[in-house]
């Protein structure tokens, strides 16, 4: 290889997939579509976000969703319920929202208080209003060949949308998914299968994960902890509050002091650059925090991959924050709009 070619190869960096910019484009598209739908049917989509109790992290996340609705013209139904309410009373409220023709999507913010069984409540949401895409019927259809769910889960849908809008074809590609959670790992694997990828799922018991990852054209990491090899201690639940603000809204007020307690992180990034196939696409769904005294909050958000190393090898990579996080709420808005349009056109 000529010296100039070697230099070009060394200087080559991965294309950074700007999830924040793509999410804003999608929000603009939805805003226009909502206006057209309103002009045609005299109605706008409606999303009911149910918040039980007063957890600060849940309140922050719910406020982000409600604000996003307002920004695109979706009507937000704010349902705030005291923590001491019974499970039966909460289910009755869900039934009420199921019957409300102005509500096209229902989202019950998790976690619920300890005296409730989340599955009992979530199963009562009408499949036609399950904009989180996690109802057993929707997941079941996602898993079946020739069947299509009414809604796809927002996080996994965000991953596929990022690939699509970045011009990355999935068909015929070898994809590796790290993690098998019900929220991301499992459903994103099913979406990749539906898109004709060859999919391998890595879990905590998988041997030789480095060699498996090196074969992948597409890597989606959703390990669910602060790097696979991390030791992470959170001494205050308010940490989750700030993580959500950073990763989802990315509008943290740098002049505000957040009570996040004490955090200690001792980690080594799990996915190194030499684990990645040259030119591969890497979607980092990891949402973790590591101590960083240089930040006003005392920590910084990170993903599951060693971003700097991976950028030297991969063809595309999502940052944390600014990748999958903003896209997840955009997909919630998209699901709500699609549910409303489907209902109005019936």
Automatic annotation (TrEMBL):
GO CC terms of this entry: cytosol
Molecular-function GO terms, alphabetical: methenyltetrahydrofolate cyclohydrolase activity; methylenetetrahydrofolate dehydrogenase (NADP+) activity
Gene Ontology BP term (one): tetrahydrofolate interconversion
Taxonomic source organism: Papaver somniferum (Opium poppy)
Domain Tetrahydrofolate dehydrogenase/cyclohydrolase catalytic: 17-132
Protein name: methenyltetrahydrofolate cyclohydrolase
Catalysed reactions listed for this entry: (6R)-5,10-methenyltetrahydrofolate + H2O = (6R)-10-formyltetrahydrofolate + H(+)
Secreted among keywords: no
HAMAP family: THF_DHG_CYH
InterPro entries documented for this protein: Aminoacid_DH-like_N_sf, NAD(P)-bd_dom_sf, THF_DH/CycHdrlase, THF_DH/CycHdrlase_cat_dom, THF_DH/CycHdrlase_CS, THF_DH/CycHdrlase_NAD-bd_dom
Family note: Belongs to the tetrahydrofolate dehydrogenase/cyclohydrolase family.
Pfam families the UniProt entry points to: THF_DHG_CYH, THF_DHG_CYH_C
Keywords: Hydrolase, Multifunctional enzyme, One-carbon metabolism, Oxidoreductase
Enzyme Commission number(s) from the entry: 3.5.4.9
Span of domain Tetrahydrofolate dehydrogenase/cyclohydrolase NAD(P)-binding: 153-228, 270-343
């Amino acid at each position: 290889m000529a010296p100039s070619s070697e230099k070009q190869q060394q200087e080559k960096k991965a294309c950074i997939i700007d999830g924040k910019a793509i999410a804003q484009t999608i929000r603009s598209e939805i805003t226009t579509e909502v206006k057209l739908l309103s002009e045609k049917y005299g109605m706008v989509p409606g999303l009911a976000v149910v918040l039980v109790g007063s957890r600060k992290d849940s309140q922050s996340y719910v406020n982000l969703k409600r604000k996003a609705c307002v920004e695109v013209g979706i009507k937000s139904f704010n349902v705030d319920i005291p923590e001491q309410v019974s499970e039966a009373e909460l289910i009755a409220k869900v039934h009420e929202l199921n019957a409300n023709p102005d509500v096209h999507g229902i989202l019950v913010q998790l976690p619920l208080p300890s005296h409730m069984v989340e599955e009992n409540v979530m199963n009562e949401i009408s499949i036609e209003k399950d904009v989180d895409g996690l109802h057993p019927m929707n997941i079941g259809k996602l898993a079946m060949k020739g069947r299509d769910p009414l809604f796809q889960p927002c996080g996994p849908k965000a991953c596929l949308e990022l690939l699509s809008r970045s011009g990355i074809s999935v068909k015929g590609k070898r994809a590796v998914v790290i993690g098998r959670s019900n929220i991301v790992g499992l459903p994103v694997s099913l979406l990749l299968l539906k898109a004709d990828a060859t999919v391998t799922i890595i879990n905590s018991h998988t041997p030789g994960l480095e060699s498996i990852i090196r074969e992948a054209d597409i890597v989606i990491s959703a390990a669910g902890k602060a790097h696979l090899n991390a030791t992470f201690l959170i001494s205050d639940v308010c940490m989750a509050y700030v993580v959500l603000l950073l990763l989802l809204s990315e509008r943290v007020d740098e002049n505000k002091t957040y009570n996040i307690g004490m955090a200690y992180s001792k980690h080594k990034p799990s996915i190194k650059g030499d684990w990645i196939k040259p030119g591969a696409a890497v979607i980092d769904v990891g949402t973790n925090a590591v101590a960083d005294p240089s930040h006003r909050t005392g920590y910084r958000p990170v993903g599951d991959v060693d971003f700097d190393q991976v950028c030297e090898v991969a063809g595309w990579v999502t940052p944390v924050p600014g990748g999958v996080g903003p896209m997840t709420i955009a997909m919630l808005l998209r699901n709500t709009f699609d549910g409303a349009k489907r209902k109005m056109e019936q």
